[in-house]
Amino acid sequence: MNSFSEQLRAAGDEIWQQIHEHPFVVGMGDGTLEAERFAYYMVQDYLYLIEYCRLFALAATKSADLQTMGKFAELLHATLHVEMDLHRQYAAEFGLTPRDLETASIAPTAHAYSRHLLHTVQNGTIAEMITAILPCQWGYHEIAVRLKERGGLDNGSRYTAWVAMYASDEFKSLSDWLRGWLDDIAEDFTAAERRRLTELYLTGSRYEWMFWDMSYKMETWPV
Ligand SMILES: Cc1ncc(CN)c(N)n1
């Protein structure tokens, strides 16, 4: 029998196939993505990650034991000092300072997705919290590993650093921890809880697709 996290991934398979085939993701993999679309993504992802850090801080305060608190602190630290450092380096290539990133205005989809996550972590159970985070943490690793398998590290483009970071073992170990934790507590879930968590996972996965699409289209507020 598949683990609960594997069942979630299977339920979202159609969405994840569409993510792998999205022109933004494909373009990062073969190096053909236009720089201006990537620069837009970097800024929006930075704004998203600021809220993502806040979410880990919130999750730490809601943790029942020190080990869990420490793990969320580790996720916060890795996001703030490793993942966002990649963004700061890319931004510098585009002539943007960290202050430019922080003071940019957030686009509709990035706003909606980050607020969805914050709402879930603020109001949800531990299981809901982990399930909401899973598409972000696990999904990026899956994307990067696929791009790496298809030569995404060898095309000489500016996107190889992105692929290398998200395909790394360090990034994998944090998503493995989240998955393992969810699988450990899944035995006690009722059928209704499983359905609710599956919906939550699918919502996050849809937002992941929407984030790529937002970046490809360089979305702005309509009015
Ligand atoms: C939208 C999004 N989702 C996930 C990740 C990986 N932390 C990210 N940087 N941005």
Give a description of the structure.
- The chain has a single domain (4-217), classed as Heme Oxygenase, Chain A (Up-down Bundle).
- Helix 4 packs antiparallel against helix 5, helix 7 packs across helix 8 (126-149) and helix 8 (126-149) packs across helix 9.
- It contains 11 helices and no strands.
- It is globular, with a radius of gyration of 17 Å.
- It has helices at residues 4-11, 13-20, 23-30, 35-61, 66-93, 98-103, 108-123, 126-149, 160-167, 169-185, 191-217.
- It has 223 residues and is mostly helical.
- Bound molecules: 5-(aminomethyl)-2-methylpyrimidin-4-amine (NSP).
- The site of 5-(aminomethyl)-2-methylpyrimidin-4-amine has 9 residues, from helix 4, helix 8 and helix 11.
- One of its GO terms (molecular function) is thiaminase activity.
- Homotetramer.
- It comes from Tumebacillus avium.
- Its EC number is 3.5.99.2.
Number of helices: 11
Into which percentage range does the β-strand content fall? under 5%
The separation of the N and C termini measures 50 Å
List segments where confidence is low: pLDDT < 50 over at least 5 consecutive residues.
none
CATH level-two architecture: Up-down Bundle
Can you tell me the overall shape? globular
The helix fraction, in percent, is over 70%
- In oligomeric terms, what are we looking at? single chain
CATH class: Mainly Alpha
Structural class: mainly alpha
Number of strands: 0
